[in-house]
Amino acid sequence: ELPFNPNGYLVKRKAMVYECGDQCRCPPSCRNRVSQKGVKNQLEVFKTNGKGWGVRSWDPIPAGSFICEYTGEVLS
Length: 76
Hints:
Domain SET: 41-76
Structural class: little secondary structure
Distance between the termini: 38 Å
Main location: nucleus
GO molecular function, one term: double-stranded DNA binding
Organism: Pinus radiata
């Protein structure tokens, strides 16, 4: 069972979500290729008060939407 609905919203929570890749026989239109379709929302990188940098959007984003891949070094 795929974790995404036909609109690309995550509808089934899982610890890890795996998407179809180059080795998969499904077509590029497969609904299990959500993050591969890129960013759909306007995002802003901003400086927080005492927590470093963050990302936000001034647009409403439906629950379950793919936002973006957000990576970085964890500092403590």
